[in-house]
Design goal:
- This protein is 67% helix and 2% strand.
- By secondary structure, the protein is mainly alpha-helical.
- Among the domains are: 37-103; 106-208, Serine Threonine Protein Phosphatase 5, Tetratricopeptide repeat (Alpha Horseshoe); 601-694, no CATH class.
- Strands 1-2-3-4 form a four-stranded mixed beta sheet, with helices on one face.
- A hairpin with a 4-residue loop joins strand 2 (672-675) and strand 3 (680-684).
- Helix 3 (73-85) runs parallel beside helix 5 (107-119), helix 11 packs antiparallel against helix 12 (211-223) and helix 13 crosses helix 14 (246-259).
- The protein is elongated and about 110 Å long.
- Mean pLDDT is 84; it is low at 5-25 and 29-34.
- Residues 602-694 form the DYW domain.
- This is DYW domain-containing protein.
- It comes from Mikania micrantha (bitter vine).
- InterPro entries: DYW_dom, PPR_At4g14850-like_plant, PPR_rpt, TPR-like_helical_dom_sf.
């Protein structure tokens, strides 16, 4: 990736001509006593449009009507633009129609009304008006009319009409002579036809380009996911001595975020500083997103610095930083919730649907159901609870917390349910062992026009596995073969798990062997399947193959390997792998921190349970290494926070470990279930179900 810096002979090319205004809009002008003249009124209207002070412009219009002045085409064209940009297309059309009665319409009038319809989402009406202009022979279209008509074709439904206009433009020669028409054509191919290759050809053939042209194509590359092409074009833009603006830089920063190009992103940050755009909230949001996605050391550190330096925060910047913390993982969801609370407390910014969606995901990850319910209430009050992304996040949050009743209510409340909605509710039922409900929901899903995806199949295969219903699993397997998902990695992993849990390890192995690409979940699933069926040597053999393939085992992999060794009585093999796991996953560190935390709560090691002749410190250290504590420490770093930690032991649990478990359940806020030779011990909130008698 080239260093994006100014060339030595850089000169700023700009085609922008500043338009001087003799005054700013001022209400005092409305009180002047002398008759209004058309020149002053025209300048005043243009100033109102430039500053978006539409109400003041409308007041002037009313005053002009009362004055009885005969309005000329210049004033009326400005009024069409004023009403168009304020969203009142009806008033704009009324003025345009009245101009026809008085033969005042010119090319500017036609261009203004066509742009008005396009700007207000009435692309078909814009094209009808363009055709009307041609049929009435009032005016022959110029570059402004062509640009306005082409913009109306950027809607996919009107793209075929765009081809006809494109041919018309080529015949008239405006493509070679006008930059605005060229920009409109780039947008036509990029947005209307989704054809960036043709858009690039238009760009390359343009005899003249300006900064807007470069920025437009760079932005379209970013929006279509062709990020490297966008960055390459930006580099060319600099070499051609064109100055980027806030939109250019924001698009390139977004491209860096998606590609993980932190070094280029930092260069973009330098550009932002050079151009004095540090105070720009729009660019600030892009930088926050880029640093959040490209963190190389401390997650979110640089993103937080950019956020804190922004002079003002709007809903976009708050959402960007909150989303960054949620997506970074690593236990940063709590910080996201803190930031959300800070935003609400300040009171100057209201969350939007993207904010709600992100913060609800954080609540789901932490199982913070009470906070989630409060945010749910806020979303209801804001009227955003029925928006898909908010409703889908609510479904996932309640499902992850085990509250399927409220998850179902959130699902039913959605006005329009999309694929994500159905996947979220089906996955929730599958994971909460309500697998029959998952299949009932799938039957409802089949009544819609929605298409299944890999998440749908993975959830339903998980539901079949929970039921032990190999028949349902095979039915899903047949469906996914017809749908073309047989080589999808996520689906194959779910198939391996389903077949092994339903007792058909041979089918699981066949799926595994046919996979073209395997990840750690694929390997772990088949190892766990072999272990479950007592095929310890097979499990260990696959584990060795996994290491040879360069795939790094995770905590669940080691559990599967240890399970295989345990079932087959392979003590030496088990000890070897446990030793590897012990150092690899830093259980020592977790154990040491656990002891510190529970001592603060009042835990005192009972060294009477150490029978060796050692000094007290050594005895304490020996107690820390008891198998129950090691197993719980491993569970804390490997088991989802929403699930209890389960430990099985073939000997009676020692008294010190029993006491420690009670403190750990408080220190970590987790449920711990230990099965020893006598009974089950269910530790929760500092107490054990055995009432200290076993």
């Amino acid at each position: 990736m080239p260093i994006l810096s100014l060339p030595p002979n850089f000169t700023h090319k700009s085609t922008t001509i500043p338009i001087p205004f003799p005054f700013k809009p001022n209400l005092r002008l409305m009180g002047i006593q002398q008759p209004l003249d058309l020149t002053t009124s025209s300048l005043f209207l243009k100033s109102c449009i430039r500053t978006r002070n539409f109400q003041l412009g409308k007041l002037l219009h009313a005053k002009l009507i009362r004055s009885g002045i005969k309005l000329d085409a210049v004033i009326l064209n400005s009024l069409i633009t004023l009403y168009s940009k304020s969203g009142d297309w009806v008033a704009a059309k009324t003025i345009f129609d009245s101009m026809g009665h008085h033969h005042l319409r010119d090319l500017v009038s036609w261009s203004a009304i066509i742009s008005c319809f396009t700007h207000n989402g009435m692309e078909s009406q814009a094209l009808l008006t363009f055709v009307q202009m041609l049929l009435m022979h009032e005016e022959y279209p110029n570059h402004f009319c062509f640009s306005a008509a082409i913009q109306a074709c950027c809607n996919r439904d009107n793209a075929p009409t765009g081809e006809a206009i494109f041919g018309f433009v080529i015949k008239t020669g405006y493509f070679e002579s006008d930059v605005c028409v060229g920009c409109a054509l780039i947008d036509l191919f990029a947005k209307g036809f989704q054809d960036l290759e043709s858009a690039r050809k238009v760009f390359d053939k343009m005899p003249e380009r300006n900064s807007v042209t470069w920025t437009l194509l760079i932005t379209r590359y970013a929006q279509m996911g062709l990020h490297e092409d966008g960055i390459e074009l930006f580099s060319r833009m600099l070499c051609c001595s064109f100055m980027p603006d806030r939109f250019t830089l924001s698009s390139v920063v977004s491209a860096c975020a998606e590609l993980g190009f932190i070094s280029v992103g930092q260069q973009m940050h330098s550009w932002v500083i050079k151009l004095g755009l540090c105070m720009d909230v729009f660019i600030g949001c892009s930088l926050v997103d880029m640093y959040a996605k490209c963190a190389t050391t401390e997650p979110m550190e640089d993103a937080r610095k950019v956020f804190e330096r922004m002079p003002n925060h709007n809903v976009m910047s708050w959402t960007a930083i909150i989303t960054g913390y949620v997506q970074s993982g690593g236990g940063l969801d709590a910080t996201a919730i803190e930031l959300y609370c800070k935003m609400i407390t300040k009171g100057d910014v209201l969350p939007n649907h993207f904010t709600y969606s992100s913060i609800l995901k954080a609540c789901g990850s932490l199982s913070s159901i009470e906070i989630g319910k409060q945010i749910h209430n806020q979303a209801v009050k804001s009227g955003l609870v029925s928006v898909n992304c908010v409703g889908n996040s609510l479904i996932s949050m309640y499902a992850r917390s085990g509250n399927m009743e409220d998850a179902q209510k959130a699902f039913e409340f959605l006005l329009e349910k999309n694929l994500v909605s159905y996947n979220a509710i089906m996955d929730g039922y599958a994971k909460q062992t309500s697998s029959d409900e998952a299949f009932k929901m799938f039957n409802k899903f089949k009544e819609t026009q929605l298409e299944v995806d890999s998440f749908t199949f993975a959830s339903l295969l998980s539901a079949a596995a929970s039921l032990g219903a190999v028949g349902k699993g095979e039915e899903m397997h047949a469906r996914l073969l017809k749908s073309g998902f047989h080589s999808n990695q996520r689906v194959c992993n779910a198939l391996i798990s389903m077949y092994s849990r339903c007792g058909d390890i041979e089918a699981a192995a066949r799926v595994f062997n046919k996979m073209e690409e395997r990840n750690v979940i694929s390997w772990t699933s088949i190892i766990a399947g072999f272990a479950k069926h007592g095929l310890a040597r097979g499990a260990l053999g696959v584990f060795d193959q996994m290491l040879e393939a360069g795939v790094k085992p995770n905590e669940v992999t080691y559990i599967a390997v240890l399970s295989a060794c345990s079932h087959a009585g392979l003590v030496d093999e088990g000890l070897k792998h446990f030793s590897s796991m012990y150092s690899e996953h830093k259980i020592y560190k977790e154990l040491d921190q656990l002891v510190i935390d529970i001592k603060r709560l009042g835990y005192l090691p009972d060294t009477d349970f150490v029978l060796h002749e050692l000094d007290e410190k050594e005895k304490e250290r020996y107690l820390v290494q008891h198998s129950e504590k090691i197993a719980v420490a491993f569970g804390l770093i490997s088991v989802s926070k929403t699930k209890p930690i389960r430990v099985f032991k073939n000997l009676r649990v020692c008294g010190d470990c029993h006491t420690a478990m009670k403190y750990i359940s408080v220190a970590r806020g987790r449920e711990i279930v230990v099965r020893d030779s006598n009974r089950f011990h269910h530790f929760k909130n500092g107490s054990c179900s055995c009432n200290d008698y076993w």
